[in-house]
Amino acid sequence: MNHFSRKTGEPVLASATLRGTQPGRRAPLSAARPYARFPMAPLQPMKGLVSLIEVETAQPVLALTFDDGPDPERTPRVLDMLAEAGARATFFVIGQKVLRHADLARRIVAEGHEIGNHSFSHPYLVTQGDDAVLREVDLAQRAVFDVVGHQPVIFRAPHGRFTPHQKAMLHANRALPTIGWNVDPKDWRYPGETLIAERMIAGAAPGAILLAHDVNDQMLGALPETLAGILAQGLEFRTISALLGWPRWQDRQPLSLPEPALAASA
């Protein structure tokens, strides 16, 4: 995954600057692309934010993020644990799974969490052209909007693999910043619940963005200890939008979407 150290020069919070950002360069689409009519005019607080791996802030806040759901067996257990801890998280969801598990997506939103775009079918986007990238993003936007009535305002590439050009192109054409992370417990390698929790707690700090997967049994086993250990440090879990001081992600105005909408069986 590519990380950037340049800053936008436009702090989102009075006490915060962004780490891992890169000023966007407009990468215009070629003519006659079917999703070019999906205007994503950025909100003011998003101006200049192309990519992000953490936020530098004096406030005792951080973001816990979950990828690859929603999962009908594991995501409900994650939500139960977050509710018990009073924690808010961001779920980077796969569009196909949102259509299949619509009730779970609606529960995520109803319980105060944020939904981010994690593509429609979870391909390796780094190997694909701009058209294919935009199609995956747009179809996921459509799926989330059709199910919960709101569009994600942030994106995370499958496997975290996204080139600098792709990040700039996505921001220029859809105004979606690409969100990475700076704490990876590597739960996808199944190193054991204890080690996952230790890595998450050790990496917790103001402005950190923690990576997790709500499709992983070991992550679920590590989550109670992780939440307790981080809360014991006096840190508060916030959504990505809240960490950045943005308006609630659901408050973004509805935008035109690609047609036709996908059937739930897609």
Question: Which terms summarize this structure?
Answer:
266 residues, alpha/beta, TIM Barrel, five-stranded parallel β-sheet, two-stranded antiparallel ribbon, 8 helices, 32% helix, globular
What does this structure look like?
There is one protein chain. With 266 residues, this protein is of the alpha/beta class. The protein has one domain: TIM Barrel (Alpha-Beta Barrel). The chain contains eight helices and nine strands. It has helices at residues 75-85, 95-100, 102-110, 130-148, 164-174, 193-203, 217-231, 240-243; strands at residues 16-19, 51-52, 54-57, 61-67, 90-93, 114-117, 178-179, 209-213, 236-238. Strands 4, 5, 6, 8 and 9 form a five-stranded parallel sheet that branches. Strands 1-3 form a two-stranded antiparallel ribbon. A two-stranded parallel sheet has the order 2-7. Helix 1 runs parallel beside helix 7 and helix 6 runs parallel beside helix 7 (217-231). The longest helix is centred in the middle third of the chain and has 19 residues, at 130-148. It is globular, with a radius of gyration of 17 Å. Residues 1-17, 21-46 and 260-266 have low confidence and may be disordered.
CATH topology: TIM Barrel
What is the CATH C-level name?
A: Alpha Beta
CATH superfamily, please?
Glycoside hydrolase/deacetylase
Order of helices and strands: EEEEHEHHEHHEHEHEH
Label the overall shape. globular
Largest sheet: 5 strands, parallel
Structural class: alpha/beta
Number of strands: 9
Query: Which percent range fits the helix content?
Result: 25-40%
What's the multimeric state? single chain
Q: What is the C-alpha radius of gyration, as a whole number of Å?
A: 17 Å
Approximately what portion of the residues adopt beta-strand conformation?
5-15%
Low-confidence stretches: 1-17, 21-46, 260-266
- How many separate helices? 8
Please tell me the total number of domains: 1
Instruction: Give the overall pLDDT as a whole number.
Output: 82
User: Could you tell me how far the N terminus lies from the C terminus, measured between alpha carbons in angstroms?
Assistant: 29 Å
**Mind telling me which CATH architecture this is?**
Alpha-Beta Barrel
